[in-house]
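Field log, afternoon session.

UNIT: design team B
ACTIVITY: writing a sequence onto a fixed backbone
BACKBONE:
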């Protein structure tokens, strides 16, 4: 929030700034509390508790009784946001923080409408500095709502990112920032600047938001009057477009992206430029080439965004020799300890003592990062011996075409990736949903072999994966730590001619795919790197093959799978795995690691080093058999039923889901099928479950089909008998379950909105509908229309066709509103005249667009709306795929009637609901109103 507002003051003819909040002296701000404030929007809403700062509502608290799922409070906040917070002239638009609680669990989160941040996964518990959580409402109130703490969170620990999304820092981020600031002050007052004890390091696990913490620490350090300069130091490849834009937001002249030191030297000379963003390479060049710069004797703070590898060497020695009064702080997710140091230096010996830690077990407990599911995929018997080899010297010797790069092995792994990609990335349903993946390989030669084989195997596919690759020259420097992933620079000139030729061809493929114009020269390659990073984050690239680049520091929540044919150890292993474990939505339940080498021992060693002996039980996902048969969660003590038990209960209790009538049965089914969706979503990533699914489609009486199936999956007769013993619901039955689940969800929403709600004696507050999981298996409209073509060939009965199509549509969330439209199309069209799937699709859209125009005219006439304004409003609503009553658009289409007329609000609500239903029915069909 902007802390000042400019008003033209006519008294004395002067213009004055009126400050809404005082950021310099935060305790001068007045804090007030109100409760049960009522505000009208689409519905009249009464808010539980609102906290005002100088009269502005900045914090909203939503409370539920003990025993109610806390998600219900989150859902209510989400509903208020749509219905009333953002209505005309509402001061509640300025809310910054929401707090939700059911007494035993209390969380806070930022007010944002950004889709990938507006999720329950981004709520957070308050915590003490040692990361112990403060869940209880009374304890939360006594700490978080202490006046100075709350104002600090609002005014100092909230930031807008480059896309104007509001972020509120998490407790461990705040604790680390405050410890850095405290250390800077104590070093200045104790006259220890320039000595090892003046600094320290922050150990925050990969994926926990280190860049935001270091960014805020750097910014707040510039506000200390005894500090002359703050250097924020990154490695060259990490100073990407996004980082530069973030820093330019609050210090436009602080970032200089050029390779020359001239820009850095010029920035240093500016008195008003207190923060300097630079790369370690450029800083080192400056120290080597410039002797007596004034900055060397000034009081300086260095903050290293990632404090190992390049910071340990020559640059660190030059820094300590040149600068006289400095303190330095490093951030790392994987510190260098004596156990994984190859030389004498460790993170602590270079930067000083650990100031704050938030390790992977903390982050998983707090649901801020995901667990890892690690599969050693060993279905290539011919190469098993070399894939399980642990001796590094033998592995290095095996990196050739006769062993690990044998053409047959490359082909088998490539085929496995193509066969399983859509399942692993949750793309089995619909079009371009789910996630994307990365493939880490051992060398440029391996990258070339895999890139060419994957593209050759999918040649002719109607929906080929978009595959890209990136690599550059990695200097053969001595490693600072065991398991280091070699640092690839932007220098491609040192590549041998074969590697350069391949990179040229891969970039040419990329240019052809995305209509870009990148090249292998240094500047063109940097631009390719940045463009590729952007397209991976937006899922435009399906599979990215890498050697070292993008395995450290790259943050893309849309990545859920890492294929590995590379020897990884210690922090290099954790860094690579951690590309996959960013939270995204309920569908992404863990980071999916599929390794074609036996990295089990290396994985356990790495996660034990960065945690403790029990860490593997927290960090690694359960086995297939545990999810099938059930297990007890060691961290919570909670007993979790397996898939087999859930399926059995569904079959026994609800053999015909369409026959469910009693409200108690509806609730029981909703809870049980939600449990099914959760465990089925997890099992989808297991190869064994894929095999079980495929077995359901095999004709057991066909010995040839059974033989091929057993050979494909390396199964014996005993394995097949085990598959036979597991009961699976048919696809048709699951469709019926999904349809009933959707019906119950729609029924409950209507009930809650109706006057009869008070008549129900059943409490639904502990039921959470798994909408994200339903959406992950959502089928799109084209798929439904293609099914119509297929079904019509099998059956010539329109009534049977309609029944089949209704079942499919009702199992879908996004297309349920189109049921009547699609059924009318079937009944009014001679499908036999449409020769192929494309013809059905074309005919449907023509039909739907005509219906859209007819129904729009009917709606406007029935409701006596302002025709031109109504058409604009409906067209806009269809384009954004929902109707909104924010602003004045809706008011302008209503028939002339005084807002004071008692019927005005009723008319407005009725029109809004009718248009909302119209938009749900016709969104996505195109055409004009």
């Amino acid at each position: 929030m902007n802390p000042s507002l400019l008003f033209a003051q006519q008294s004395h003819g002067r213009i004055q700034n009126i400050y809404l909040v005082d950021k310099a002296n935060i305790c001068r701000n007045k804090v007030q509390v109100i409760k049960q404030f009522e505000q009208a929007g689409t519905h009249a809403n009464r808010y539980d508790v609102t906290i005002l700062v100088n009269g502005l509502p900045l914090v909203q608290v939503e409370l539920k009784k003990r025993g109610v799922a806390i998600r219900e409070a989150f859902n209510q906040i989400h509903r208020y946001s749509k219905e009333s917070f953002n209505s005309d002239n509402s001061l509640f638009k300025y809310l910054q923080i929401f707090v939700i609680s059911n007494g035993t669990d209390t969380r806070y989160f930022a007010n944002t409408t950004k889709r990938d941040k507006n999720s329950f996964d981004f709520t957070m518990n308050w915590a003490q500095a040692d990361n112990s959580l403060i869940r209880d409402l009374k304890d939360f109130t006594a700490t978080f709502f202490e006046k100075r703490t709350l104002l600090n969170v609002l005014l100092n620990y909230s930031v807008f990112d480059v896309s104007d999304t509001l972020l509120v820092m998490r407790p461990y981020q705040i604790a680390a920032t405050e410890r850095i600031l405290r250390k800077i002050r104590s070093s200045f007052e104790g006259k220890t600047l320039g000595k090892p004890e003046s600094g320290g390091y922050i150990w925050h696990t990969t994926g926990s938001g280190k860049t935001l913490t270091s960014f805020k620490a750097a910014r707040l350090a510039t506000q200390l009057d005894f500090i002359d300069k703050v250097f924020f130091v990154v490695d060259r490849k990490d100073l990407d477009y996004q980082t530069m834009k973030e820093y330019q937001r609050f210090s436009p002249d602080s970032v200089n992206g050029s390779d020359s030191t001239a820009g850095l030297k010029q920035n240093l000379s500016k008195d008003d430029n207190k923060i300097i963003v630079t790369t370690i390479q450029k800083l080192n060049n400056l120290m080597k080439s410039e002797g007596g710069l004034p900055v060397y004797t000034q009081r300086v703070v260095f903050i290293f965004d990632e404090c190992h590898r390049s910071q340990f060497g020559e640059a660190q020695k030059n820094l300590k020799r040149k600068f006289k009064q400095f303190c330095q702080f490093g951030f790392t997710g994987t510190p260098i300890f004596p156990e994984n140091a190859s030389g004498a230096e460790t993170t602590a010996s270079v930067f000083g003592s650990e100031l704050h830690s938030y390790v992977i077990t903390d982050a998983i407990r707090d649901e801020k990062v995901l667990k890892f599911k690690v599969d050693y995929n060993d279905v290539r018997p011919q190469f098993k011996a070399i894939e399980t080899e642990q001796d590094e010297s033998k592995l290095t010797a095996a990196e050739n075409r006769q062993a690990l790069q044998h053409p047959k092995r490359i082909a088998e792994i490539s085929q496995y990736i193509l066969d399983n990609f859509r399942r692993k990335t949750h793309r089995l349903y619909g079009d371009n949903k789910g996630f994307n993946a990365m493939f880490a390989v051992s060398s440029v030669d391996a990258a070339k072999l895999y890139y060419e084989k994957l593209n050759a195997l999918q040649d002719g596919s109607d929906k080929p994966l978009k595959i890209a690759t990136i690599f550059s020259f990695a200097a053969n420097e001595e490693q600072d730590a065991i398991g280091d992933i070699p640092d690839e620079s932007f220098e491609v000139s040192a590549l041998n001619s074969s590697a350069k030729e391949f990179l040229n061809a891969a970039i040419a493929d990329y240019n052809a795919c995305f209509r870009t114009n990148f090249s292998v020269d240094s500047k063109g390659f940097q631009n390719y790197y940045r463009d590729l990073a952007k397209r991976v984050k937006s899922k435009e690239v399906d599979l990215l093959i890498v050697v070292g680049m993008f395995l450290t520091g790259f943050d893309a929540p849309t990545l859920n799978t890492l294929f590995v044919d590379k020897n990884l150890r210690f922090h290099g292993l954790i860094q690579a795995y951690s590309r996959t474990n960013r939270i995204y939505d309920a569908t992404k339940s863990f980071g999916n690691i599929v390794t074609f080498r036996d990295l089990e021992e290396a994985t356990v060693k790495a996660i034990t080093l960065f945690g403790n002996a029990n860490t593997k039980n927290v960090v690694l996902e359960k086995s297939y058999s545990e999810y099938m048969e059930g297990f007890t969660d060691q961290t919570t003590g909670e007993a979790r039923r397996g898939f087999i038990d859930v399926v059995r209960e569904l079959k026994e209790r609800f053999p015909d889901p369409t026959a469910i009538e009693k409200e108690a049965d509806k609730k029981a089914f909703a809870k049980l099928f939600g449990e099914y969706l959760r465990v089925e979503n997890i099992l989808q990533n297991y190869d064994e479950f894929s095999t079980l699914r495929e077995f359901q489609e095999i004709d057991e009486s066909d010995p040839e089909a059974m033989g091929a199936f057993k050979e494909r999956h390396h199964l014996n007769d005993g394995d097949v008998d085990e598959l036979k013993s597991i009961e699976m619901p048919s696809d048709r039955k699951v469709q019926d379950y999904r349809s009933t689940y959707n019906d119950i969800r729609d029924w409950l929403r209507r009930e809650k909105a109706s006057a009869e709600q008070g008549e129900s004696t059943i409490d639904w507050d502990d039921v959470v509908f798994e909408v994200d999981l339903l959406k992950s298996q959502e089928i799109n409209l084209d798929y439904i229309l293609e099914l119509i073509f297929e079904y019509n060939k099998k059956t010539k009965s329109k009534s049977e066709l309609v029944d089949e199509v209704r079942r499919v549509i009702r199992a879908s969330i996004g297309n349920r509103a189109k049921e009547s439209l699609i059924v009318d199309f079937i009944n009014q069209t001679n499908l036999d005249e449409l020769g192929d799937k494309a013809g059905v699709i074309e005919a449907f859209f023509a039909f739907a667009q005509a219906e859209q125009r007819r129904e729009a005219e009917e709606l406007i006439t029935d409701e006596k709306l302002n025709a031109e304004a109504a058409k604009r409003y409906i067209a806009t609503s269809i384009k954004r795929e929902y109707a909104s009553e924010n602003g004045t658009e809706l008011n302008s289409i209503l028939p002339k009637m005084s807002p004071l007329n008692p019927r005005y609000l009723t008319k407005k609500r009725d029109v809004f609901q009718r248009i909302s239903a119209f938009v749900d029915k016709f969104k996505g069909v195109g055409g004009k109103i």
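LOG NOTE: The longest strand covers residues 31-40.
NEXT ACTIVITY: expression trials, pending approval
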